[in-house]
Amino acid sequence: MRNWDDEIRTIELYSSNAGKLIDNGERLAIKLYGSTPDSSITEPVHIQKQTKMKNATILHKANEFVKKGNYESFLVYCTQDTKWFFVGERILEGRDKVREYMKEFYLEPPVFTVEKTIEDGNYVTVTGEITLKAANGTYNHYDYCDIWRFENGKIAELKAFVIEKKS
Predict the structure, then answer these.
(1) Would you call 6 helix, strand, or coil by DSSP?
(2) Which residues does the UniProt record annotate as the domain SnoaL-like (predicted)?
(3) Largest pairwise CA distance in the chain
(4) Are 151 and 79 in contact (CB under 8 A)?
(5) How many CB atoms lie within 10 A of CB 45?
């Protein structure tokens, strides 16, 4: 097999690698160059790899809905059986439990800042600060470290370390 060269790879139509490359599970765009294809073609076919959206990008896109208070649109980014572990506090199992949590604790959309985002395979780790409005009207400030696990581009699990800031 040849190496990717600027995300474009050339293969020969008569090469057995063509079928393997197309069937390897990646989404590929095929662009033919040259004359109209027929059964006698021996010219190269250029295949450009289309990269799927990275999990960190998906997470930040989903969190934009949280910032706007549109929790249902955020939940579309979660698997039906998503699990959220708030270390030392509670475990939420399933999209409905996450929905209930958001209704209870996000009286107003949370205000959060992202300090760092680290992506490694199916995991995205995010650190930052979040401010939540409490039922008594006061605002509580926290530092957080969230570890998100993805399955097929959806949020399957969250392990959250949240520490209240003391004044």
Answers:
(1) coil
(2) 64-157
(3) 77
(4) yes
(5) 20
CA-to-CA distance for 6 and 49, rounded, in angstroms?
10
Q: Could you tell me if 23 and 76 lie in one domain?
A: no
Mean pLDDT for all residues in the chain? 80
Supply the DSSP string of 27-84, one letter for each residue.
-EEEEE-SSPP-TT--SEEEEEEPPPPPHHHHHHHHHHHHHTT-HHHHHTTEEEEEEE
Q: Is residue 151 pLDDT above 60, yes or no?
A: yes
State residue 1's pLDDT score.
Answer: 42
Which domain covers residue 22, as residue numbers?
8-49
Verify that 146 and 93 share a domain, yes or no: yes
Spatial separation of the C-alpha atoms in residues 129 and 141, rounded to whole Å: 7
DSSP string, 84-151: EEETTTEEEESHHHHHHHHHHH-SS--EEEEEEEEEETTEEEEEEEEEEE-TTS-EEEEEEEEEEEEE
Query: Percent of the chain having pLDDT more than 70?
Result: 68
Q: What is the dihedral of CA 94, 150, 21, 46, to 10 degrees?
A: 120
Instruction: Tell whether pTM > 0.85.
Output: no
Residue 35 lies in a domain: yes
